[in-house]
Amino acid sequence: MRAITQKSFGDPHVLDVTDLPRPEPLPSEVLVRVHAAGVNPIDAAVRSGAFPLIGQPPFVLGWDISGVVEEVVPGVNRFRPGDEVFGMPFFPRAGSGYAEYVAVPSRQLARKPAALDHLQAAALPLAGLTAWQSLVDTARIEPGRRVLIHGGGGGVGHLAVQIAKAHGAHVITTARADKHDFVRGLGADEAVDYRSTDFSEAVRDVDVVLDTVGGDYGRRSIPVLRPGGQLVTAVDRTDTALRAAVESAGRRFAGITVEPDHVGLEALADLAAAARLTPHVGHALPLADAAEAHVLVESGRTRGKIVLTL
Amino acid sequence: MRAITQKSFGDPHVLDVTDLPRPEPLPSEVLVRVHAAGVNPIDAAVRSGAFPLIGQPPFVLGWDISGVVEEVVPGVNRFRPGDEVFGMPFFPRAGSGYAEYVAVPSRQLARKPAALDHLQAAALPLAGLTAWQSLVDTARIEPGRRVLIHGGGGGVGHLAVQIAKAHGAHVITTARADKHDFVRGLGADEAVDYRSTDFSEAVRDVDVVLDTVGGDYGRRSIPVLRPGGQLVTAVDRTDTALRAAVESAGRRFAGITVEPDHVGLEALADLAAAARLTPHVGHALPLADAAEAHVLVESGRTRGKIVLTL
Questions:
Q1: Closest to B235 in 3D by CA, of B42, B12, B10
Q2: Which CATH architecture has domain A2-124+279-309?
Q3: CATH class of the domain defined by A130-255
Q4: Which of A89, B34, B158, B164 has the fewest CB atoms within 10 Å distance of its CB?
Q5: Measuring CA to CA, how many Å separate A143 from each of A163, A170, A221, A232, A266?
Q6: Model confidence pLDDT, tens digit, residues A146-176
Q7: Left if phi > 0, otherwise alpha if psi is -120 to 50, otherwise beta: which for A75?
């Protein structure tokens, strides 16, 4: 099968198309014919060696996938050959998603909703589960809560805005002025242009801040939170000084690392099926252009998620 | 840390106590100090080489664990140090449970209910999830359904009887006569002594058969099932001739392989907390006696689950 591998850590051009044997699914697993594979910033960090999460090369990058079940090992009952599925297998261990076939534990997959094509579904798992596990599993947002999402135009942010809105929250988001139409279209009640407005002065009485930006955003979010409110950061999860500052101000702190979970995937699929969640795909490239996809994801200047097609 | 390893496939005496480095949990994982590790028949099959599921030795066997969270990687919010947890990490890949410490994805653990001690909780995941995923996830049993469980006195069976009863089923079970008091104490409505009674003639109009025994039990269960009823087998999942025989008789067939799932673990914990599910521990041995535990599990003549203590 075709797959993208790398022989060493390095810049995007270490990524190469190669021919590898099809993986053999183990008991409890299914073999998925991948139709689209999402490209996330963490893929670039692993590729370059900045975050050597899955050991030394050679390896196959990629976690987000959407595709069709090719084969189920006897003993698996959740899916049948031909079912359309999506997921984020094995994260944070090697997921091997940039490939024609992947073997995936059945409970790390969910049915792809018909409302999404494979490109959209491949854009959803890692970013969507990050937003879901931040807002729902961790912050337990409820109707009427005031939620501030930093980077509402970004990969995690644009899904977080929709998830928060679907839960009945009042959604405020920081985004560049030229993305305000986009984030309002996603359901944001208020959009703050971070270049012309200091959100740390302009926003108050927020129950939950979700930070997908980092830098000084976490610290500047403290006065935004009501007493007892919670800062959930998908970026500065190891920042003990930030945690201390948040807690000494009488607010709560949670760093979040995304994790595979069929429950969250099913919830995201249900929202998508109800037309309450649409991942925005900005760039779709053929698998062979994985290097170009990495140049794009590292630029940080794309709009919408980047997906490889197979 | 102390752990049980083996240098080659072979009889129980290949199992040896060794000193290994503590595992380093990855992002999204927690480090668990193991207090008890369950011993399952599949452990013996992997040890001997009969089922080379996790590659070549050396490796550390064991999936079922119960223990205390020692450390959480920043980004994990489901648990804190000191929490009591149980689970079946990484199955069917290497779980490394026969050891003082294991690194476990947070969503492959659930809180240990206070109603169970560590020995009982370590006896629960693999057998309990097998029963749960068979009866609830796959057969979707409902109140009033007639369920026949083969081997109601066994490791999976004694948990299946309790789970079926907790779901309001009418529970029939095959068991040796000297286990009838035991299975009735678990809630079985009818116990059939398979040595004096041919269950395939004595039992009729069953909605679901769960087979934990194998051999000819699957085929002999066909006339027991009502038309449209389902045979769920945790043993003969690859038996295509059995599947064909069941389906040509107008019944449904499902083979089942257990899979880690926090949802199932949480459901089992809730049942245990409500005193509706108690794993029966027959033998508790110190970690160093892993070889003896394997002799016991291979004898097939124990009553109750076998657990190693640390």
A1: B42
A2: Alpha-Beta Complex (3.90)
A3: alpha beta
A4: A89
A5: 12, 8, 21, 18, 21
A6: 999 999 999 999 999 999 999 999 999 999 9
A7: left
Tokens found for residue B237 = 């999942």
Output the CA–CA distances (angstroms, integers) from residue B117 to B88, B158, B250, in the order listed. Answer: 16, 18, 44
DSSP states of A228-285: EEEEEESS-TT-HHHHHHHHHTT-EEEE------HHHHHHHHHHHHTTS----EEEEE
- Signed CA dihedral, B121, B123, B129, B132: sign only: negative
Identify whether the C-beta of residue A224 lies closer than 8 Å to the C-beta of residue A174.
Answer: no
Residue B240 burial class via C-beta count within 10 angstroms: exposed 0-12, middle 13-18, buried 19 and up: exposed
Domain boundaries along the sequence of chain A: 2-124+279-309, 130-255
Peptide bond preceding A92: is omega within 30 degrees of 0, i.e. cis? yes
CATH 3.40.30.10 fits B127-255, yes or no: no
| Beta pairing partners, A150 | A174, A211
Query: Which of B261, B263, B265 is the best residue to mutate to test the A interface, defined by the most A CB atoms within 10 Å of its own CB?
Result: B261
Q: Which chain B residues are within 8 Å of A92, Cβ to Cβ? A: 26-29
pLDDT 10s digits, B107-166: 999 999 999 999 999 999 999 999 999 999 999 999 999 999 999 999 999 999 999 999
Residues facing residue A19 across a β-bridge: A2
The one-letter amino acid code at A97 reads G
Q: List the structure tokens of B126.
A: 């693999």
